[in-house]
Amino acid sequence: MSARLLSKAFGSLSVRTPHAAPGQRIGLLGGSFNPPHRAHVAISEAVLTRLGLDAVWWIVTPGNPLKSHDELAPLEERLAACQKLVTNPKIRITALEADLDSTATVVTLSFLKQRFPGVHFVWVMGGDNLAGFHRWAAWQRIARLMPFVVADRPQWRLRALAAPAARALARFRVADSAAGTLALRTPPAWLYLTLPLSPESSTEIRQGRRAASRTAKKP
Fold first, then answer.
1. What does residue 53 show for φ and ψ, rounded to 5 degrees?
2. Burial class (CB in 10 A: 0-12, 13-18, 19+), 13
3. Assuming Cys at both sites, which of 42, 86, 88, 127 could form a disulfide with 156, CB separation 3.0 to 4.6 Å?
4. What is the pLDDT of residues 37-58, one digit of tens each?
């Protein structure tokens, strides 16, 4: 994390976030949301209930550094799509990473912990993210910043739990039955959450839209 980012963003009122009060338990679901879909909502509502959270923030990134931006819709378009999809008042939408001028998860989480020292944050990721977590910048520091919950995704469970990060953090894994305590645990602490699986994915939705567009253009 650079000194420039620290001096510019940390504590800056220019970084807009949803409201959070000391003692609250808040999940943080980051991603491109390109586009958002019902599986994002289902994961959010599952962690709200199972972890006893007060809110889940969708952190809509300007761009994932590990993914191609060739098909990335403009940030404002993705934010509007999220607002249109979400009806649960406990799910809140934010583009705080654009204000931070950083898409690094370690910077985002460090910033939120410093701005809201009395809030119990939980990072939320999918099983596909856990499978590649060891490739994220400063992933070991991320694991020490706050507890995290991994939402099961179709066909990812075995690969995710066999991945390098999961093996390295195996002794810190919390049982499903203790999900309600995760937000209050001292990190590293994490949980692989079993939940009803949705086949929806942003990638498949974009592929379907491309196919429909090609079909519509045929004479």
1. -85, 155
2. exposed
3. 127
4. 999 999 999 999 999 999 999 9
Residue 121 contacts by C-beta under 8 Å, 6 or more apart in sequence? 26, 27, 28, 109, 112, 113, 146, 183
Closest to 97 in 3D by CA, of 31, 48, 34, 41: 31
Which residue ranges form the domains of the chain, and what is each CATH number?
Answer: 3-217 (3.40.50.620)
Q: Which of 31, 23, 34 lies closest to 128 in space, CA to CA?
A: 31
pTM, full prediction: 0.85
